[in-house]
Amino acid sequence: MCSILGLIDFDNKHPSKNEVIFDLNKLLSHRGPDDEGYFNDEYISFAFNRLSIIDLNLGNQPIIRNNIISIFNGEIYNFKSIRQELEKLNYKFETNSDSEIIPNAFNEWGVDFVKKLSGMFSIAIYDKKNRKTYLFRDRIGIKPLYYSNIDAGLIFSSEVKGIINFPGFKKKIDYTALYSYLSFRYPTNNNNYFFKDIKRLNPGHYLEIDLNLKKITEHQYWKLSINKPKYKKSEKFYLEKLDQLLNDSVKSHLQSDVPVGVFLSGGLDSSLIAAIATKYHAGRLKTYSVGFKETKYNEGNKANLISKHINSEHTEIIIEKKDFFENLQKIIEIKNAPISIPHEYPLYALAQKMKGDVKVVLSGEGADEFFGGYSRIQKSPFDYKKNKFIQSFTNLTLIKEIFSIEKNFDFRNKNLLEYFFEKYNWFNFNETNELLNDKIKHEIDLKSVTQPWTDNFDDNKDKSYDQILSLFQKNHLQCLLDRLDVMTMANSIEARVPFLDNAVVEFINNVPFKYKIKWKSSYHIFKSLFSSSSIYSENNDINKYLLRKCSEKYLPQNTTMEKKLGFPLPMNEWMKDEKIKEILLDATTLNRKIFKKEQIEKLLKIEKETNDPYDFSGKKIWMILNIEIWMRTYIDR
């Protein structure tokens, strides 16, 4: 929807802060090209860029009500019901926008107002009378909020560029974040980002900034958890409830005074959203997809099939290798960070194509994390328990082969989380340690790298399958939401995620795991004893079972039972390009003493591997390439 930016100046040490914030706000104008607004006093500077979605003529920010000043980025889907509640309490409204409820709701309920909100948001509130500022982030972390402590104050922004361009900010590498990126594709600890001294506000949290005490305190207002169902319900009950909640969610996410479209890959998640959206969208729904020249990786025909099924107005773009490389530098500059997933350029290109067509797009993020879409890893507790049990009796090679037990993993002495890392990481920890030079290792806090995973794991003792799901929901998902926000907002388009609606999330996390990833039969369980989840996943079990059942009334059968492909790219093939070798082995790269030359050379020797269906070899090279281009762009300048 917008961008928010602000500076809290405890001691009035930044007398030119108004001008500085004004200039920085221009760097974020792509997020809100329709309007802008500012608030300044001796201690606070707020700036705002607006992408007009609801109440196009009014609703600009900041909004000031009774010494409460607010700016916010996102959408509050239940704002009408909250407004009605406030009107009964004699609050008056001047617009029809969702932004106007925020200062009034804060005035009435204090910080607890945030618990009433259903939506995606990052919010800044200045309580002038009590001399406090608050920063809030939505429950799941759909909308970003970065901040940094500066000399006697704090600066916050919807994007990193609002902070790194602040006068006097020193761009230094956070090696802990770099280690996390290599291991998990993303710095999962919100206290570490690629630039030192930049943090992200945790989802479901808010900062309380006391100007009198010059104190900053972080509070949690909501916790994401997977709960054991209190009562046994039938599959029919869960199915009907999910159908109702998805319809409610999609309908609320379609609220807009501007055109709305849907990202349509042709897979289960986006197809279901598009099909439900056609029920509530006036006129033909606009859908958009990406295709690739390489036939193996192109899902364009699937998207076209669904488009015909729901009678949408469909647009497809085709991405080639040259597009990918020609725009790599540009995407890193847009994000101000190494790209987490290779799909980011295709997503950016698709959003660029949509610009002028629609201002809002619905997307399918969250379905895999909450409904059990990554069964190759989310079913790994079955393998771990089986292998640990067998290895406690024998370590014979023949037995390992019969039961498909990994030869190089010590199931006797390692726990489930360590096994998860082994299956999940692109670079495992040993590979990362071998890749990095000893020169920088003392700057890496390994406890901070693993903390978001170990903390979440401890939350769900004795519930191994739910523990793994929890890791995806709290950590893996953040990478995808970050990608979605930056690449769409770079083109002034707001992306919304119906699967992450509050009611949907809280419902599915109270549904038994057996309705998320379901064994096909007892026979298939028996077969899986002699296999591993990497092989039997989606052959012996059905991932996203409940979601697939729900989709049967909306989609063709071949779509409801389609195996997950996951927006793939031919990374092994693309990373053989000679230009990549030149960059990674030239003097600029090697003189940094970050990566060991022999390890880079080893990775560059990619061969056509039949046992690498996920292109992991190419993805590893891709990550190192991203880091180097990012450093040349921001650290060297």
Uncertain runs with pLDDT below 50, 5 residues or more?
A: none
Structural class by secondary-structure content: alpha+beta
* SS element count, helices: 30
What is the first-to-last residue Cα distance?
32 Å
Count the E strands: 19
State mean pLDDT (0 to 100 scale): 93
SSE inventory with pairings:
Elements: E1 2-9, H1 17-26, E2 35-40, E3 44-50, E4 63-65, E5 68-76, H2 79-88, H3 101-109, E6 119-127, E7 132-137, E8 146-150, E9 153-157, H4 161-164, H5 175-184, E10 199-200, E11 205-210, E12 215-220, H6 235-253, E13 260-263, H7 268-280, E14 286-292, H8 300-310, E15 313-319, H9 321-326, H10 328-335, H11 344-354, E16 360-362, H12 367-371, H13 375-378, H14 380-391, H15 397-402, H16 416-424, H17 429-435, H18 438-441, H19 446-458, H20 464-489, E17 494-496, H21 502-508, E18 518-519, H22 522-528, H23 533-536, E19 541-542, H24 545-551, H25 557-560, H26 571-574, H27 578-584, H28 587-590, H29 597-604, H30 616-635
Parallel strand pairs: 13-14, 13-16, 14-15, 16-17
Antiparallel strand pairs: 1-3, 1-9, 2-3, 4-5, 5-6, 6-7, 7-11, 8-9, 8-10, 11-12, 18-19
Write structural notes for this entry:
The protein is an alpha+beta fold and 637 residues long. 42% of the residues lie in helices and 16% in strands. The chain is built from 30 helices and 19 strands. α6 runs antiparallel to α21, α6 crosses α24 and α11 crosses α20. The longest helix is centred in the C-terminal third of the chain and has 26 residues. The chain is globular, with a radius of gyration of 25 Å. It starts with a strand and ends with a helix. The mean pLDDT is 93.
